[in-house]
Amino acid sequence: MAIEHVLADPRCARVRFSRREFIRMAALGGAAAAGLDSMLGGPAGAWAAAGKRGGVWRMAIPGNPTAYPITIPGKLVDILVDKTIFSTLVKYQLHNGTIQVVPDLAQSWTANADLTEYTFRLRSGVKWHDGQPLTADDVKFTLDAMLNPKVNAGLAGVVSAISQTTVADPTTVKLTLKYPYASLPVMLGYNVAIVPKHLLEGQDLNQPVQFIQHPVGTGPFKFKTFAQDSYLEVAANPDYFGGAPLLDGIVFKVIPDGNTRLAQLEAGEIDFTVIDPPQAPAVQGARGIELRRAPQVDYYFFAINHGLPKFADVRIRQALTYAIDKQAIVKNILKGDGRPATGPINPLLGAYYNPNVETYPYSLEKAQALLSEAGWKKGADGVLANGKGEKFTLLFNGPKGYPVMEQVMTYAQQQYQKLGFDVTLDIVDWPVHLQKYHDRNYDLLMEWWITPPDADLYDHYYSTSPDNWWGYKNAVLDRMLVKARSEPNPQKRIAMYHDIQGLIAKDVPLVYLYYPPELQAMSSRTQGLPLIGYRDALTWVSKVWLA
Amino acid sequence: MTAYLVRRTLQSVVLLWIVSVAVFVLIHTAPGGAAVLQNPDLSRDQIAQFRANLGLDAPLPVQYVRWLHGVLRGDFGRSYNTVEPVARLVETRLPNTLLLTGIALGLAVLLAIPLGVASATHRNTPIDRLVAVLSFLGISTPVFWLGIVLIVVCSVQFRILPAGGMYQIGEPFSVGDRVRHLLMPVFVLMTANLAEVTRYTRSAMIDALGEDYVRTARAKGLPGPAVLFRHALRNALIPVITIVGVYLPRAVSATAITETVFSWPGMGQLALQSAATRDYPVVLGTTLAIAVFAVAGSLLTDLAYGYADPRIRLG
Fold it and tell me: Distance (Å, rounded) from C-alpha B75 to C-alpha A327?
């Protein structure tokens, strides 16, 4: 079926008349209906490859995509498009409320006893969109490119544990690591898309002009057209190793304004967009649209600048946490969409998540008492001062353009002012916000992390890690982090991460706030999209179909 | 005349060069660096490495000379955000914006002149007051509000017009389809222009109608329309030409909000997004394009004066 026909009528009523008629008649017949039922509601639930073939699914993206996974920009929109065109070695599946790692291009993998060497067996028979076979050489080419310092590989950090990639045979890749690392398989699923060596060898990998204009991958959809700043279209890949997609194609429409995205969804011109919490009420009652709350591996927090001696005393950091009523934030600002955070590990990580840690239930009195013990008392002007007469000022940074974050920060400012802190809000443009974050030009700063579904916290929390943005130093935690990431036995590792969460909760490197779901607004005709953040949901887009 | 044109062109080149230096210094000294480098997933070492790879660690004058060297060879560099060549980005977006603003401005002028003339000749009558109120509304209505309201009413509520974009995806080219997509953004852009040009035409006409030569023409016995159009309007058009001349550079940049609301792939959006994310090569490219239009606009306006007003001698 030509994509053109389908797109002519967004409601697609006329085009699939014949199929609908057939199904209606079959339903009347009864027997076919039973067949349809078991197809759709089978034991595998949402993961069953049920549903009709055909149709084009339209998704809104906020900017221009560059379908090339190796280098920066590596914007969110690039990642989304890449999920449909390229494949990774492993991917993530939501199962009973936790995320698990499942094979994608790699069929299976093993590690040596001390986790310094991994062997991945690739699926056989996988073909690139141009018909060439995928081999281990492509995997080696991709990983080498990412680790090459001359290549501006945005996700190099994700695979930085790898010191060498060797091709054992056309379907076997051996990865030698710099240090024992239990999380390697999970990290290889975090947007490490494999690219074709035969099309990129010899090119300038920072600007492979030809390839960007016509990307070739192994994913469920092939690149079709890109109209600058209007849309990018991909068409189904019937030879996809995971089974031919049910959709005929996907159109990523470039719609920069959030209100316009919602308007287009309501007008039936697109099928899917992510929305901001303030837009949720508009979607709630709308006909033909479903509001989904998709969990994702994330946490929101106030960063504390550990380079400043005034935060050295843990009692101050504990006071900062006691003063925030996380339940109230979730109820009143997030309107119930979210859970109070207990630490940096998200409940989606299943057994790794430890809910039994110190949680600092809201109490301004306890906060004030702790500050007092630490030597900070309210002066005559109501501002906290220490024995030397120095006042406790808080320069509180946040990014502009995020209404929910601004509300949380305003609330926090009020709370901290009640305790006697002299708080100045510094809400700035996104690039300036990031600059100040890098340069540690803040006292407190509100931010979030969306991370791979893995418990390893080394990158952000190890004292000398280049990704430790807050300057947090804790030698005991350092040792625990190294031990945990090198532990081959999963049960022992889970116990270690539980201890790590306990220690972090006691030492308060950050003020942990909440785990929000991603709010998705989707047309009711869309079926089969897993209820998880869209970065991960799109890896299963071959199972999506249109009712 | 030729000497005049040559002189103006040389002056323009110098002006463009000055603009490029000023913009270069301004954007590099503005706080916040290239957003593409400030992805929190990048480590400090990576950021330093990529900065070096992109040439951003060299001193400013060196960076400027490298850029200028490229420009003189026709290479405006590549966008940090999309790896597209800047020249191609501007090339594809410019016609989209010109289409929008050209039609909006053209319609605005076509409608404004009769409205302005009608207001001037029927001063202080209900017609005049109605036009005045509509002008006031046109100038004061915020573009983003009007745009979204139109989308909600026409696209969501009544489904008679598409909610943004330049054309229906997947369909072959059709004038009808393009026109349907142009209707709302053109209307939105036109309202402010129309209001302003109407007011200017009105006051210019009122001034012209008060001049001595008009009284003479009437005294001579010329019929009303002849007085109006052959004598008064021609002179009243001079301030209007000034205004339209000022609109020319705005024609390629002041559309940022309309383009964002209607997902119109144009220069305004490009300029806005590249500035917000400090995409230096693109910011320089768009600013230069706008500067070229400003310079060309001013030249065209002066030439138009020379044509419209015989008292003005160019050169």
Answer: 55
Are B123 and B164 within 8 A, CB to CB? Answer: no
pLDDT digits (tens, 9 = 90+) for A392-446: 999 999 999 898 999 999 999 999 999 999 999 999 988 889 889 988 999 999 9
Closest residue in A to B165 (Cα) is A230
The contacts of residue B229 (CB under 8 Å, 6+ apart) are: none
Interface residue A467 vs chain B (CB under 8 A): yes
Residue B174 in contact with partner chain A when CB distance is under 8 A: no
Report phi then psi at A323, rounded to 5: -75, -10
Cβ of A431 within 8 Å of Cβ of B35? The answer is: yes
Distances (CA, A) of A292 to A255, A289, A295, A419, B225: 20, 10, 9, 38, 66
Measure in Å the smallest separation between the Cα of B122 and chain A Cα atoms.
42
- pLDDT at site A395: 96
**Among all residues of chain B, which has the CA nearest to that of A147?**
B46
Instruction: Supply the pTM of this predicted model.
Output: 0.85
Strand A98-103 with A298-304, pairing: unpaired
How much is the mean pLDDT over chain A?
A: 88
- Domain spans, chain B: 90-263
CA–CA distance, B21 with A394 (Å, rounded to integer): 39
Answer whether B93 sits within 8 Å of A150, measured CB to CB.
no
Q: How far apart are CA A49 and CA A57, in angstroms?
A: 17
Token pair belonging to B268 = 């305004």
B146 Cβ contact list (under 8 Å, min separation 6): B188, B191
The first and second tokens of residue A155, run together, are 């996700």
* Closest chain B residue by Cα to residue A78: B82
**Alpha carbon of A153: minimum distance to chain B alpha carbons (Å):** 9
Q: Which two tokens stand for residue A410?
A: 């305003």
Distance of CA B151 to the CA centre of its chain: 23
pLDDT at A50: 63
Position A35 scores a pLDDT of 40
Tell me the Ramachandran region of residue A445: left when phi exceeds 0, alpha when psi lies from -120 to 50, beta otherwise.
beta
Output the six-digit token pair for B58: 């060299």
CB of A65 closer than 8 Å to CB of A81: yes
8 Å CB contact of A429 and B276: yes
Convert A262-290 to b/e letters by CB count within 10 Å (16 or more is b): bbbbbbbbbbbbbbebebbebbeebeebe
Reported ipTM exceeds the 0.85 cut: no
CATH architecture of structural domain B90-263? Orthogonal Bundle (1.10)
- Tell me which residues of chain A, numbers 174 to 213, contact chain B at a CB-CB cutoff of 8 Å: 206-207, 212
Q: Verify whether the Cβ–Cβ distance A230 to B41 is below 8 Å.
A: no
Rounded to whole angstroms, how far apart are CA atoms A362 and A157? 37
Query: Strand A518-523 vs strand A272-274: parallel, antiparallel, or unpaired?
Result: antiparallel
Q: For the residues of A408-422, what is the DSSP string, one character each?
A: HHHHHHHHHHHHT-E
Contact B156 A430 (CB under 8 A): no
C-alpha to C-alpha distance for A360 and A294, rounded to whole angstroms: 27
The residue count of chain A comes to 547
